[in-house]
Structure formats: C-alpha cells, structure tokens
Amino acid sequence: MADKEDPKNGKMGKGKSKVVCGYPLSIFFIVVNEFCERFSYYGMRAVLVLYFKYFLRWDDDLATSIYHTFVALCYLTPILGAIVADSWLGKFKTIIYLSIVYAVGQVAMAVSAIHDITDSDRDGTPDSMTFHIVLSMVGLFLIALGTGGIKPCVAAFGGDQFGEHQDRQRRTFFSVFYLCINGGSLLSTIITPVLRAQECGIYSKQKCYSLAFGVPAALMVVALVVFIIGSGMYYKAEPQGNIMLDVCKCIGVSLAYTICINTFYITAYQQWLKKLLIAQIKMVLKVLFLYIPLPMFWTLFDQKGSRWTLQATTMDGNFGALVIQPDQMQTVNPILILTLVPIMDSLIYPLIKKCGLNFTPLKRMTVGMLLAAIAFVCAALVQIQIDVSTKQLLHSSPYILSGQGFIYFKLTIKGKANSDTEIVENQAITFVGFTDYFLVYFRFVNGMKTAVNVSTAAADFGLIEPFYYSNYSQIKNGKATFTLRSGSQSCEYSTNFGFGSSYTFFIHSTLVFGSNCQDSVTAVEDIKPNSVHMALQIPQYFFITAGEVMFSVTGLEFSYSQAPSNMKAVLQAGWLFTVAIGNFIVLIVAELAKIPKQWAEYVLFASLLVAVCVIFSIMAYFYTYIDPTEIEAQFKKKINEDDEDDKSKPGKAEVEMVKRDSIKCHDEYDKATQTKM
C-alpha cells in the first residue's frame, strides 16, 4: 500500500479514509487496537507475580525480581521502537511487526501455564518445570519487546491521521485514547484474576493461569487484526530520522563546530543557527538533570503489582457479597486515578492557588514523592499486623512456614481409647501437605469400618478406605456442602471455609446416615483463616495513587512545557527510562538486600524516597522556569533578520565553505520537527 499524501497539506491520498462526525474513520481502528492491547498487557501483568509464586513455585524475592525485570524491559524497549519507527520502518510497519511478536509472546505465556503438558503422572503438578520456565521467559521477552516497541508509535500514528485544520478533533482523540488505556487496564485487572481463580485442566483441575493468560493473548490477536483491517485508510508518513539520534549527532557536531569556529568564514545567519541549537540542547539537559532522582518514585510505585499483591495473598478478601482476589486489589489504582485527576484539577489545585500558595509543578512532584513514601509506611503497618496474626497461627496450628511461601504441615492423629470407636490403636497417622495463602484446602479422615465416598455438587473427591485419609483438595472459600455416601446410604455435611485456611474433617465411627451428619463430623483448623482484611490496603493504594497523580501527570506536563518544540520526544524517552531504572532498583534490593522482615523493607524504601525527595526539592529550588516557545521565537526572529542581511552581501561562494556537518545538522532538525516518538 503506497503512502497517502500528507493530510496536513490538504491533499487527497490513495487510501480511502472517510470522515465520520468530523473524525477520520481510521482513528476508530486505532482506538479499538489500543483498548485491546492495553487489556492484553495489564491483564497478563495482573496475575504474573502469582503465576511465578504458585505455578512456577518461586519464592517471593525471585518472583518480585523477575516481575520488575520484565517491567523494566517494557520501559526500555520504547527507545528501540522509536528509533526503528522513525529511522527505518515507519510507524505503521513497526506496529504491525512488533504486534505479531507481542501476540506470539502472549500465546507462549498461555501455553507455559498449561500444567497437563508435563504432568505425566496426572497429579496436578508439572513434572518438568524447566519447560514451563523457559517458555514463560521467552514469552515475557517477546511481550516486553512488543509492548515497549509499539508504545511510542500508536499514539503518534493516531495523531498523524489529522490535518492542520483538525486540532480540536486531535485533542479529543488523545483524550479518548488515554481513556481507552485506563479502561483496558481497569477491566483486565478485574477480569483476569477471576479467570485465574477458576479451575481447569485435562487430567487434573488446577488454578487456571492458562485461561488468565489466554484471554489477553486472544485480545492481542484481535488488536492486531483490527489494526490491519484499517490499513487502507491510514496516512503512513515516511521515516524521517529519529530525534534522539539527531540530538546526539548534533551535540558532537556542535563541539567540533565550536573548535573550528575561528577557522572558517561563518555568516551571522549560521552563527544564530548554532546558538539556537545549543540553547535547545541546554533546555533539554537541564530537565534531564532533574530526572536523576526520579527513578526512586517508580521503585515504590510499581511494587503495587508485586510486593503488595503478595501481601494481599495473606489477607482476607471477603467483603460480604463480594470476594476480592489478591490480584484484584490493583483495580483500586485505576479507579482512584479516574476519580482523583478531575478532583485535583478542578478543586484541589484551584483551592491552593486561591490561598495564595505558589504550588509550582516541581513542588507538586515533591509532594507526590512524599505521598508515595507515606503509602509504604501504611504498607509496613499492615505488614506488621499480618506478621502478628501469622505469629499467633504458628503457636496454634501444627504447620511450618517455608521460605518458598508454602505452608507445610504435619499432623498426628491418635485413636480414642474406646474399644468400639477407636480409629487407630497404639499408632499414628502422619501426613504432610502444602497449601498457599489464598486457597482453601481440606481433607477427610475416615474413622468408620466401611469405605466412604465424599463429594460436592461440583466435584467427587473419591472413596476413602476405612481408617484412612484422603488427599488434600482445593475448594473456594465460603459455604460448602459435602455429601458422604456409603453404599446406598448418604448424608450431608455443611460448613463455612475461611479465606486462606486449611481443614481436616474426622468422620466418627458412630456416624449414622440420615438427612445430615453435622454432629458426626469434627472439623479441625490445620491453618486458621486469614484474619487481616484486604480493606486495610486501601489507604496505601490511596496515597500511592494520589502521589502518582501529583508526580506523574504533573511531571509529564512539566517536561512538555520546558522542552523545545523539536525535542519533546527526547524528554519522553528520558521519562520512560526513569521508570525502567526504578524497576531495576527493586530487583537489586530484592536480590541483594535480603531483608528478613517485609515491613522493614517497606520502611527502607519509604526512607530512601524521603531522602531522594529532599535532594530533588533542593534541585527544584535552583531550577529556573523558561518558555521555550518564546526563546525559540527570539532566535528565529534574529536568524531571519541576519539571513536577509547575508543575502545582500557579496561573497556567497565563501559562505558555502562553511563546515557542512553543522548545516546538515540544522536540516535534520527541521525534518525532525515533524517526527514524534
């Protein structure tokens, strides 16, 4: 498909993009594509850390480290994607090719979570974990390459579809575009944890991570197909060179130009071009210098998908009519964003201004850092409460808490001294099992002289021989009714399961079958239910989200306002780079610090952010706000004046002897003004 003519020039292109309500029809395909892609990414990421811990059986530190390595790669690859799109393939082809890579990665993740592939003995546990680990790591790498590579292209490609006369429509498009990002994030974070909590499998039923990854994979395929369908309607700009590479080149040329300035004859016009270029680069470097302390904020912020989710697995998610999964607590963040952004813009900031306070963007960012630190203090307090609860369980339940995050317990059951009701005389039944925090496990011990079958409406747990016990089975928390059957006789036993608990049920030898057998079954709590409620996490989510609104939204606005017109993409790349560095810091702390108490790690991160906040506030105090548009206008006015003077002077041949690299550098910048990251 040949590229269309530039719509900014008002020419008709070879594509046939119709106008609907003043908008090019092509942008509707882009909006749908973005919604599906964001659903795919955030849906997969929502359950990722639990997949590491409970499917791959990694400990908390390793699960956290790999999670943040993946997130860091997702924020490093946009730089690569921008360079490829602007210098080689163009935005359209880059989106197509990397979306294919992205979809393959999502499919690989879904396949890696099918436990039956290597479960040869059909016990519900993969026999070869290496296969699942390797396939999942390959999938995550492809996803990071795909989502990061298309991140800087899709929004800019959508903006390219509008002409100069469609500024209002373009602004509306970007608003809808970012609404789709938040909408996809919110819905996927609600839906995929529900899918994960289902049980699926060919030979044995386990938590359905394959479905939780499979649905995002399907959405990514839909995103790719929708984008391709609109192919004939798009305006596809030719690659014009990447602004980041141009900046690096021009810094080098500028240095060489300064050395040679006295050697060649330089016109006043070119002198001003050189000064404008240097002024633009100085503006960018001043803002990039302020970025140095920023990664620490992202170090704390992105842990809501790792450490905070793992914290939620040790808590009670029963909200009455609604049961919240640990990974669903992340939905609090996008909900609060959609609530707090308009409140901040229309109420908080105007109120502060009316009070006569000069609440500058850098001051807002500083407050945002402090709010994030407060969020981690709240997380530490919640963790202390959880630790107290866990300590009580250690004294009251016969289990051992391993470093892998699983609970191994050993229970000895001795028979009664009564001759007609004894289960086992002079010996003990000893068994070892494991559970995780947010599932309910149970088993039955048969004290009768006949075999008993135990089942529910959803599953049959098999026949239990006399004086023997069943294997542990999983069940959802809440009320459950069991049917106990021996031959043609049966009765029902009902009980309520607490969140994250484990039970053993003893069937008495005196059991009489009838309508119910409540009095003939004794329940023992091997592991008490989680007693700390997930609602206690809401304050920390509130503070971290308020911090995000004041830090991230304001930071992007500040960067845009302080950047020259042709170098805004450079600051966008720098901003994404701070997110990547912040995630690498989590990786370093998780793997090297090895802090035994989780609450102490939270306090450490909060303290580090406070220290960085002080440094940033000092740097902000000495920063001078500028208006790049006004500065560039002054330079351009002087350039135009001196250009007219140069044209009236003889010696044009001598002017052409000026070092060509500096002129080429300026020409590249003129072209780059139309290039977006």
From TrEMBL:
PROSITE patterns: PTR2_1 (PS01022), PTR2_2 (PS01023). Keywords: Cell membrane, Glycoprotein, Membrane, Peptide transport, Protein transport, Symport, Transmembrane, Transmembrane helix, Transport. GO terms for biological process: oligopeptide transport; protein transport. It catalyses: glycyl-L-glutamate(out) + 2 H(+)(out) = glycyl-L-glutamate(in) + 2 H(+)(in); glycyl-sarcosine(out) + H(+)(out) = glycyl-sarcosine(in) + H(+)(in); glycyl-L-proline(out) + H(+)(out) = glycyl-L-proline(in) + H(+)(in); glycylglycyl-L-isoleucine(out) + H(+)(out) = glycylglycyl-L-isoleucine(in) + H(+)(in). It is found in: Apical cell membrane; Cell membrane; Membrane. Belongs to the major facilitator superfamily. Proton-dependent oligopeptide transporter (POT/PTR) (TC 2.A.17) family. This is Solute carrier family 15 member 1. It comes from Lates calcarifer (Barramundi). The lineage of its organism: Eukaryota, Metazoa, Chordata, Craniata, Vertebrata. The gene is SLC15A1.
